[in-house]
Design goal:
Elements: H1 2-48
Length: 49
Amino acid sequence: MSSSSSAKISSAMVFKNAAFCFPDVVLNVLKASEAKATAASISSDVASL
């Protein structure tokens, strides 16, 4: 009984940590894609000049 409850607790901790880290991961991905899009638009602007 104690082993199953400890497994539940550890999975809950992992879930909490994942939920806590998830927004940072999403923000980093969005920032990276935004930087890529900005670089692409800048390079296309330079190419059009």
